[in-house]
Each structure stands twice: as C-alpha cells, then as structure tokens.
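User: Quick sanity check before I run a bigger batch. Here is a single chain. Can you write out its predicted 3D structure?
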Amino acid sequence: LAGVGEQGAAFRRLYPAEYYARFLAQTPPIRPDGRALGQTRPLSIGLGFITTADASAIVKIGSATALACIKVQVMVPSDDALDRGALITTVEMTPMCSPEIRPGRPSLVAQMLEHQVDGLVQRCIDTCQLCIAPGKAAWLAYLDIYILDADGALVDVCLLAAVAALQGLRLPRVDVQEDGSVVPHSDGTA
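Assistant: Done. Predicted structure follows.
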C-alpha cells in the first residue's frame, strides 16, 4: 500500500488544479507547504564554495537550490565587438533535483530556464567591462548554473545564484604584451 505522502503526490500530478484549490479553499488560504499566501520562503546565499571556480554562489529559496559557478578565460574579441568580452550562460538540471529529470539530453525546462536566465543576466552585464585591450584581448566568462533541488521558484533561485556569483567575481589583473599575449600582472595581485 502506498503511504499518504505518495497518494498526495500522485493526486497533485494527476489533478493539479483540484490539488491547489483545496489549499486555497481553506480559511485563511494557505500554500501546500503550509505558508500563508503572502509569506516568502526562507532565503540563504553562500559564496565561494567551489574553490576551482573564479566565483561561485549557492542559493536556497525554501528547498529550491541552485549553484552558480563562473570560470573566465582570455579570448580575442570578435570583429563586431572589439571592445567587449562575452558571457555564456548554461543551466543544467541534475537528475537528483527532481524525479522527472533524467540523465542525458537537457530537459525542456532546463532549456527554457537557460534562455530566460541568460536573457536577464545579459541585460545586467556591461560586456565592455570584460575588455582587457580593445581588439586584442577580452574576458570570456562561463556562467554555469546547476539546479540541485527543483522545488519551485527556479527562475528566481537561478537568477539570484547568477547575480551573487557575478558580484563575487574578481577578474585577475593581467598585462597585454606587444605581441598581443596576455600574462598575469607582474605583482601577482588580483
């Protein structure tokens, strides 16, 4: 026999409108997790957990959890943006984040999240700040977001993780040589 929790989860999947209507019909109306309609989920943000990344942040909104990591590398600016660097965003939903996610091809939800989050992040970033030397060198930043628990508010948790990681990013100080090569700054500071 299935437990009450399993029956509730099955009812929610099969009849989502009726499932949520039962909570909204209560006085006062509540959410399925017991919160009042206007009550927010607890929020926590941690920075710098991934030491192999140039910046990282983990964000939890309730149980929903996302990890954002940034790695940077030097690139030659494109001909149509000689004074700009670039930011590439990816979003992955790990199989452990939800029973519906399977290994292999990215899920449709992950693809839509990547499109939404990338569009929002690109509007917040001035890629001119990623320029090292116009026409010679710029930073290419890879922003990888991993959803660890897909318990709602996915755009919010991904966007907060991205912004927190970007705020923690400190680009290394570099010098551009006459031949266009980029080397760490002589005093070694960031």
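Residues 76 and 123 are 22 Å apart (CA to CA).

User: Great, the batch can go ahead then.
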